Structure formats: C-alpha cells, structure tokens
Amino acid sequence: MSAFSASVLRHDWSLPEVKALFELPFNDLLFQAQTVHRQHFDANRVQVSTLLSIKTGACPEDCKYCPQSGHYNTGLDKEKLMEVEKVLKAAAEAKAIGSTRFCMGAAWKHPSAKDMPYVLKMVEGVKAMGLETCMTLGKLDQEQTRALAAAGLDYYNHNLDTSPEFYGNIITTRTYADRLETLSYVRDAGMKICSGGILGMGESLDDRAGLLIQLANLPEHPESVPINMLVKVKGTPLADEQDVDPFDFIRMLAVARIMMPKSHVRLSAGREQMNEQMQALAFFAGANSIFYGEKLLTTGNPQADKDMLLFKRLGIQPEAREEHDDEVHQAAIEQALVEQRDSALFYDATA
Ligand code: SF4
User: How far is the CA of 56 from the centre of ligand 1 (A)?
Assistant: First the structure.
C-alpha cells in the first residue's frame, strides 16, 4: 500500500493489512507514516495538554495496570474530588506555561449525581479561561454526556486499552461493549473523542493491531489517540511485565498515524522512561501531542522545561489551539513559552 492511498480516511481496516503495516521494514514504515503526517499536519508542531487528577485513587474498577484501582495496594494517597477553585487555579497555571488543553481525570467507575454539579462547574470555569477542556470520568450515560457538552466540554477521554480479545485479561469489572457505548454517547452529544490504549501488558501483535482496528473502524476516528507505554507500578498485577521493545512502540505510533491520518496521536504515559532520541523518533513517526507539566495523573512526567528544551533542539513549536478565536491569547502563550525556554534559569535547571 502506498502512503498516498493510506492517507484516505478509512473505516474498514482488516487484521491482515494492519499486520502487514507492522511487519514493514522499520524505515519503510516510518517513511510512510511521515509522508501521511505531512499531508495533514505541520510536521514541526506538537499539541500540548496538561493533565490534572481531580479525584485520585480508590477506583472500584480492576484495571490491572492502574495504581488508582482500589483492588491493589500501591500505597497511593487517596483524595476526594478536588475543590472547583483549586482546579481552576491549576488550569490558570497550565495556561500560563503554554498548555492549550486542560484535561481533568477522576478515578471513578462513573460520575455520581452528587458529583456532577461540581464537575460541570469545573468545565465551565476552565472553558471560560480560553482553554480547551477534556475530562475522563469513567462510564457515562446519555444524560451526563449531554450535560457535559452543554457545559462546554470539548473532549472526553475513554480508552479502549487493548483489543476486544485481550481485554478480559486486563479488566473484568467493565466490558468492552460498555466502553464502546460511552464513546457513542460522547459522539452523539457532539463532543470530540480521545481514545487509545496501552502497550506492554503482555498483549500480542494481533492485539495491538486489533486495538487500532477498533479505533479506526469507529464511524468517525477519535480526534485524539493516546498511545501509552505501561508504567509498571509496584503493587499492580502488571508490575513485572516485560519491557516493550522501543522500536515496537514506535511502530505502533506509525501504524496509528497511517490508519488515522487526521487524528492527533499522543505520546502519552511512559514518556518519562523514553530518552530524547526515542521521543524524537516518536515525533517522526507521527506523534504530535504530549502531556506537558509535572505530573501525568499519578505517574511522573518529564519536567516541562525539559520538554521545551527538546522542542527547541528539534525545531518543534507548540501547536496553536484548534479554535482560533483568541489569537491574542495564543500569541501571549507562545511568547511565554519562548521566554521560559530562553531564560537562564531554564538552562541552569537542565544542565
Ligand atoms: S484506569 Fe481508570 S477506571 Fe481503571 S482502575 Fe484506573 S482509574 Fe479506575
């Protein structure tokens, strides 16, 4: 298949053709992915989001990779739902350091009726600051998706995690069909979808291909596709899984880029374990979104200043917001980034 034919939006991917992409020589696959990437994006721009955990730990789900599951003892401090004012303060800080999207995550099976009013206030407040809004709150019903959309929620994150076949090895408290149903409600309510998965849970190549097939064969591709590398946390059942071959991780990003050419492919959890060369290769394979800031929910994230230094060395600029109704704000963000990037303190901190 040529890069050009691959760049057409398709929703009928089959396992043999996706496996054939994975099995291409590495250079051929990366060339194809980069060619597709340049047809739809500025190859030197990366979108930056900040992620805040608004409710941490004691989750009733049993996702085997997750330190927030109440089923495992990982020593994580549990927190109640954060106060709205604290969330808005964190969003203002994220905006000041250049993030264009603010993602709020709660470790819930689903939001309760008593929590919804606070969650909606958070969305309204963050939106009013001129940031794009994203939330991940677990399973939603139709009424909740409509309320979130009305409050101004732009994106809803709900990962499929892996293939339908492997899913039962990782989560038993919620079905794959539940996840697909939530995604369809989110779409029906007019919000954008952020959905991806995790590598390194003991899945096969068929499972990696199967996850991408599920995402690409949705009626519309998710606008954002986070590809995570398992962060092995002591106390979780996957703490001793084998490392993913870094080249296989890059292959996953490249195949995701080819299959969903207009989606933002996000280099997500596990980035802290990746050296700069691997991150550069990930951007070349078509990853064009990162989480930026100190923490990624409960696991570490490279320091924001390190990210900016890497961007500078690679000639990458942070991507402008998708809604261009506030160019003054965008210019201010870019200026703040340049100042931070060039400050003496910044260089001292990374020396
Ligand atoms: S991944 Fe989400 S749903 Fe699963 S245990 Fe962790 S917080 Fe709960």
Answer: 10
What's the rounded mean pLDDT across residues 283-312? Answer: 73
> How far apart are the C-alpha atoms of 63 and 325, rounded to whole Å?
39
2's enclosing H/E stretch is none
- Judged on CB neighbours under 10 Å (0-12, 13-18, 19+), 153 is buried
Ligand 1 centre distance from Cα of residue 343 (Å): 39
199 within 8 A of 228, measured Cβ to Cβ: yes
Amino acid at site 112 = S
Residue 103 a catalytic site member: yes
Instruction: Report the number of distinct structural domains present in the chain.
Output: 1
* pLDDT tens figures, 215-253: 999 999 999 999 999 988 888 998 898 999 999 999 999
The SS3 assignment for 229 reads strand
Range of the domain at 261: 3-350
Half-sphere exposure of 287 (CA within 13 A, CB side): 23
For the entire predicted model, the pTM comes to: 0.84
Residues framing ligand 1 (Cβ under 6 A): 59, 61, 63, 66, 68-69, 107, 138
Nearest CA to ligand 1 atom 5: 69
Nearest CA to ligand 1 atom 2: 107
CATH, residue 86: 3.20.20.70
Nearest atom of ligand 1 to the alpha carbon of 66: 6
Q: For residues 51 and 163, give the distance between their C-alpha atoms in angstroms, rounded to a whole number.
A: 25
* pLDDT (tens digit per residue) in 28-75: 999 999 999 999 999 999 988 888 888 888 888 889 998 888 888 877
Percent of the chain with pLDDT over 70: 85
